[in-house]
Design goal:
Strands 2-3-1-4-5 form a 5-stranded parallel sheet, sandwiched between helices. It has 221 residues and is α/β, with parallel strands linked by helices. The structure holds thymidine-5'-diphosphate (TYD). The site of thymidine-5'-diphosphate has 14 residues, from helix 4.
Length: 221
């Protein structure tokens, strides 16, 4: 098994910037790196993503929403994540199951046990070795995202049309999960300079990779 790292955080927290930097840095260190995302990490997933994020689909009920995110995840794990991990890669995913617990669980108020069951079906129990959480006050994240949208460099989707109350519940959920499992979560302040965040993330991942024999092995090959 390789190393499975996921990035979580609100809209506008800079996940994509960090993933791009990370891919470059870890590749330069000789690791086999696979970057991916949810929803939309596979061909089937791209179609599910379009459905989920289309602002015209405001009528989507929470139960349909969770099943669509989970369908995307099932395909993603089976087709892309597990095969790459089996080859000893470091897989970096922009969002994973913790998004479901934060958005559909804490945000929408769906039953957590039911979400765990659906998630187990979708993932076969695969959990990240490390969850990097970029924390940012809700208003700051939405302001960043809105600015990008106005400049024409970022999309504005169905999930971005939710209320501030919803986003605050999502953030509280992330903070609670990070606090419960500090050994698996790296919580960072997303307002820190990009380079500072990048160095902290690389340090944590390389330390983890060093203790996983097959990740080190894939690096030598
Ligand atoms: P995306 O454009 O990828 O957002 P971001 O750039 O913030 O990652 O859109 C994904 C949206 O889907 C985002 O608002 C979070 C939401 N989401 C869920 O609600 N549940 C999930 O399980 C996942 C994976 C994402």
């Amino acid at each position: 098994m390789g190393l499975f790292v996921t990035l979580e955080g609100p809209e506008g927290s800079g996940k994509t910037t960090q993933i791009n930097l990370l891919e470059e840095a870890l590749t330069a260190l000789g690791y086999h790196v696979v970057c991916t995302r949810e929803p939309g990490g596979t061909e089937v997933g791209k179609q599910i993503r379009a459905l989920l994020l289309d602002a015209r689909n405001a009528a989507l009920v929470p139960e349909a929403e969770i099943l669509l995110y989970s369908a995307d995840r099932a395909q993603h794990v089976a087709e892309k994540v597990r095969p790459a991990l089996d080859k000893g890669a470091i897989v970096i995913s922009d969002r994973y199951a913790e998004s479901t617990f934060a958005y559909q669980g804490y945000g929408r108020g769906l039953d957590m046990e039911m979400l765990s069951d659906i998630t187990r079906l979708a993932t076969g129990g695969l959990q990240p070795d490390l969850v990097i959480y970029l924390d940012l006050p809700v208003e700051d994240g939405l302001a960043r995202k809105h600015k990008e949208h106005i400049k024409g460099t970022g999309e504005w989707n169905r999930m971005d049309d939710q209320s501030l109350v919803f986003y605050n519940k999502v953030r509280d959920g992330y903070l609670a999960m990070a606090e419960r499992a500090p050994e698996r979560w790296l919580r960072l302040d997303a307002s820190e300079p990009i380079e500072v965040l990048h160095r902290e993330i690389v340090a944590r991942i390389t330390a983890l990779a060093a203790v996983k024999a097959d990740v080190a092995q894939a690096r030598k090959e």
